[in-house]
Amino acid sequence: MSLSLESSIKLASGHSIPQLGYGVYQARSKECEDGVKEAIKAGYRHVDSAQAYHNEDIVGRAVLQTDIPRTSIFLTTKYMPSHNVHPSSSVYEIIKNSLKKIDRTGSDQPYIDLMLIHAPFGGEEGRKNNWEALVKAQKEGWIRDIGVSNFGVPHLKALPSPKPSINQIELHPFCQQREIVKYCEENGIAVQAYSPLIRADKNRYENPVLVGLAKKYEKEVAQILIRWSLQKGYIPLPKSVTPSRIRSNADVYDFELSSEDMNALDGLDEGAKGACTWNPVDQA
């Protein structure tokens, strides 16, 4: 399997997304700004933010401070829906706020590469309205791709057309969400993996399979986890604000996990109980 830091995934829209992303969950102020700049310096060309992270403007400002043009950096953000039902017109105005924050280039035609609905809140009617707002923005051209996050199979099946380009879910060897992944793969929906490093859970990092593979390949456990995700065809979003970790998380292209070792990692799946974070894929 030939993978590199320049590897990308072709979305159903025809656009491409860099396969390795940089996550900024809970990153604030200067550490977020410095982290984004360090990631871009290390070769990342994909940054994942969200309205709920309160750092869209910081990400936009950091991108401006690099030598890489905005057009070469894929920026994702997410609309955080309410548990209540809101008309699509109201949702549209809320998502428009993200455009002003994350694309700070001053261009006459600012854009967001990818906007996701952060969670399946609001019931079927609310999800429909939220989706209609994103579809409108995509038709107008200031959001290039639209998708969802934390959506289970019933949520995906009930969405109006078009199909989402991406479903971003918690995904790592201990929480593989296989039914959702299978549905996405069968329906041309790319799968993004958040929390691919299991939030550096100490107990899980001491798992004998992970420890053994890290020793075998002379890599860190985090690098094994990221490589597993990449070889699965997912789009992992590792997060760190430590420069050395940001760089090492991208240093995963000089080795390949064997099929036997991939199977060993697949065998760690604990189903739903393996989730280490908020995982509302069964939300009504």
Task: Walk me through this protein's architecture.
InterPro entries: AKR, Aldo/ket_reductase_CS, NAD(P)_OxRdtase_dom_sf, NADP_OxRdtase_dom. The active site is at 53 (proton donor). One of its GO terms (molecular function) is oxidoreductase activity. Substrate binds at residue 118. It holds the Pfam family Aldo_ket_red. The chain has 284 residues and is of the alpha/beta class. It has a single domain (8-201, 235-255), classed as Alpha-Beta Barrel (TIM Barrel), CATH 3.20.20. Helices cover 39% and strands 15% of the residues. It has eleven helices and ten strands. It has an eight-stranded parallel β-sheet with strand order 3-4-5-6-7-8-9-10. It has a two-stranded antiparallel sheet with strand order 1-2. Helix 3 packs across helix 4 (123-140) and helix 8 (208-217) packs across helix 9. The longest helix is centred in the middle third of the chain and has 18 residues, at 123-140. The protein is globular and about 55 Å long. The N and C termini lie far apart (39 Å). The relative contact order is 0.15. The mean pLDDT is 96.
